[in-house]
């Protein structure tokens, strides 16, 4: 059995001489809040610029509850109206109207029906480019017309919270889409099976009023028309008297 002649005290001294790691330094988290955001927070409401997206609701008549959601987006910096309170989008005389889901946007997840505010992407990269060109170069007003039957403007208080929260989630989704597009847009969304709902003519529907109608593939991708079989006949939803009164104001997909 061998024994060590090394001094135990010397061993402890060697241990004491080893470098000791300093305590970890706490990293300062960089704030993402800008000075402009802080300034805007403390600024009086009367001095803040108007919100770019405003919402309102409409009813088919005065005896029925509201069923149509109207969203109006006007980018920041747009010249203001005479009262200096509400932005006024440039007045243009022609209107290009589009459906929303699976025409301008689609779900990022691939699901057909989604209610997550962040689950969306452009139907095709051409979409925002062509919409901006329509407005900025060809002087069209951009209008979006959509059926949103899963949204309830007046849900029962006992309805599941997920159902009652769909309206807010949907509005967040629309706000995200329009902020990214950032041109003046008016959106109409029908939430009930009344005269506002496509293909009825409460808002306007191209094929049953006699204006130019193109599919997303034809317009955004410049594809040739494809043969298809209708699942319904749009003319069945037309009020003949109202069409005769307005048909003359439509031409080649635009309101003049």
Give a description of the structure:
The protein contains 7 helices and 9 strands, in the order H-H-E-E-E-E-E-H-E-H-H-E-H-H-E-E. The strands form 3 sheets. It has a 5-stranded mixed beta sheet, covered by helices on one side. A hairpin with a 2-residue loop joins strand 8 and strand 9 (254-255). The protein is globular and about 85 Å long. By secondary structure, it is an alpha/beta fold. The longest helix is centred in the C-terminal third of the chain and has 16 residues, at 166-181. It has helices spanning 8-17, 35-42, 126-136, 161-164, 166-181, 216-220, 240-246; strands spanning 53-58, 68-73, 94-98, 105-106, 121-122, 140-147, 185-190, 250-251, 254-255.
Which CATH architecture? 3-Layer(aba) Sandwich
Largest sheet, if any?
A: 5 strands, mixed
Q: What are the secondary-structure elements, in order, as H or E?
A: HHEEEEEHEHHEHHEE
Strand order of the largest sheet: 1-2-7-6-3
- Total number of strands: 9
Output the radius of gyration: 29 Å
Number of domains: 1
Classify the beta-strand content into a percent band.
15-25%
Looking at CATH, which topology would you report?
Answer: Rossmann fold
Rounded mean pLDDT is 77
Shape: globular
Low-confidence stretches: 29-33, 240-256
CATH first level: Alpha Beta
| Terminal-residue CA separation | 109 Å
Helix percentage range: 10-25%
The helix tally amounts to: 7
Q: Can you say what the CATH homologous superfamily is? A: HAD superfamily/HAD-like
């Amino acid at each position: 059995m061998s024994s060590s002649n090394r001094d135990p005290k010397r061993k402890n001294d060697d241990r004491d001489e080893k470098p000791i790691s300093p305590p970890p330094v706490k990293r300062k988290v960089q704030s993402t809040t800008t000075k402009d955001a802080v300034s805007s927070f403390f600024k009086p409401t009367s001095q803040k610029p108007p919100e770019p997206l405003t919402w309102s609701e409409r009813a088919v008549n005065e005896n029925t509850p509201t069923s149509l959601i109207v969203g109006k987006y006007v980018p920041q910096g747009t010249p203001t109206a005479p009262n200096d309170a509400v932005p006024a989008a440039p007045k243009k005389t022609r209107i290009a109207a589009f459906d929303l889901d699976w025409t301008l946007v689609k779900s990022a997840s691939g699901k057909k029906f989604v209610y997550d505010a962040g689950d969306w992407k452009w139907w095709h990269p051409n979409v925002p480019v062509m919409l901006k060109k329509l407005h900025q170069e060809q002087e069209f007003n951009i209008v979006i017309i959509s059926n949103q039957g899963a949204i309830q403007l007046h849900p029962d208080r006992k309805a599941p919270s997920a159902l009652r929260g769909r309206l807010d989630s949907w509005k967040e989704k629309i706000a995200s889409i329009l902020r990214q597009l950032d041109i003046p847009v008016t959106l109409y969304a029908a939430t009930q099976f009344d005269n506002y709902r496509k293909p009825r003519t409460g808002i306007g529907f191209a094929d049953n009023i006699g204006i130019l109608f193109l599919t997303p593939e034809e317009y955004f991708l410049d594809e040739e028309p494809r043969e298809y079989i209708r699942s319904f006949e749009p003319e069945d939803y037309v009020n003949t008297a109202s069409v005769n009164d307005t048909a003359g104001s439509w031409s080649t997909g635009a309101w003049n």
